[in-house]
Specification:
Length: 315
């Protein structure tokens, strides 16, 4: 079944309610007494740690969204119930839509007492298109929402109000590069950093590297701090982020991009894999995105980092 505009609005509100309730719970946790567990996951430490907070946050979210699963015949994919062993048989390949949920993205900064973590909820269709995206940042209280459907139904909100961030002059002297901390151990990192430093200087900018966030807040950080980019290069090992790391922010970025284009704004934003194609958010062979990498970018035309440049830098 194809969801109507009214149904999408209802689901957006329920996803927002769930994210806010989970965020309130997360903020109530005493992080000094956390028990950290490991799980079989990707190659990076961030993919291998889980706390009871992740599990409890997921339970809070599902308490609100579970009725929609039956009502609209929606599949469910969450970080805490996903397995690489049975990817091909997951219900998301037989349903028109699936919820894609990360109940606490950025577990490492969370357990270390920092910020940079978030609740992320997306609705993705069977073709891998992110239709709804909700991100809640418990540290700041900010909530980002999007319906990414037909142009007449697409919208982006921040804290309940229409949102179209513009370049702020006080930040225009720098190009913000968002990376996961694990990228610093990648043998390609020095060359990428060197080339991006040159690229920044050519635009009259200073490169600023931010490496303290989880994947969700890295993508939101890009949208909030133009000109900016967040990149993850392809790699052989499992990892490179997961479907639930990017689905909500991809919906927000795509809906925002459509708004920029419709308004003839000098700003542009985009999300793609490292080859410039749309993210494969319903891939049938894995929950991970290491096969093609990820690139979020925002800025004016001359400041936009292209997938071609990214691959050139990585060689």
């Amino acid at each position: 079944m194809k969801l109507t505009v009214f149904q999408l609005e209802q689901l957006l509100q329920l996803a927002t309610d769930a994210a806010l309730k989970a965020g309130t719970f997360i903020n109530s946790v005493d992080r000094s007494s956390l028990l950290v567990h490991s799980k079989q996951a990707g190659s990076s430490l961030s993919a291998q740690v889980v706390t009871q907070v992740d599990l409890d946050s997921q339970a809070i979210i599902l308490e609100i969204l579970q009725p929609t699963i039956q009502q609209y015949d929606i599949a469910l994919l969450t970080e805490e119930n996903a397995s690489e062993e049975d990817v091909a048989t997951h219900a998301r390949f037989n349903k028109d839509y699936f919820w894609c949920i990360d109940p606490l993205d950025g577990t490492l900064p969370f357990i270390e007492g920092g910020s940079g973590f978030a609740v992320s909820i997306a609705l993705v269709d069977i073709a891998g298109n992110p239709i709804i995206g909700v991100v809640h940042n418990p540290s700041t209280g900010d909530t980002y929402q999007a319906i990414n459907a037909q142009p007449q139904t697409s919208k982006v909100l921040k804290n309940g109000s229409p949102w179209q961030p513009e370049r702020l002059e006080e930040y225009s002297h720098s190009l913000s590069l968002y990376i996961d901390r694990s990228f610093q151990q990648d043998p390609r990192y020095p060359a990428v950093l060197e080339q991006l430093t040159v690229f920044s200087k050519q635009q009259g900018l200073v490169l600023q590297v931010i490496k303290t966030n989880g994947a969700v807040m890295n993508a939101i950080g890009v949208l909030e701090n133009a000109p900016a980019c967040y990149l993850k290069l392809p790699k052989a090992q499992l990892g490179g982020g997961s479907l639930w790391d990017f689905s909500a922010t991809a919906a927000i970025t795509q809906a925002l991009s459509a708004q920029y284009l419709a308004s003839s704004s000098p700003m542009l934003c985009a999300v793609s894999d490292s080859q410039g194609a749309a993210l494969d958010l319903n891939r049938s062979d894995s929950n991970y995105m290491n096969h093609k990498g990820v690139l979020y970018t925002i800025g004016s035309i001359k400041e936009m980092l292209t997938p071609h440049q990214l691959l050139t830098f990585a060689l």
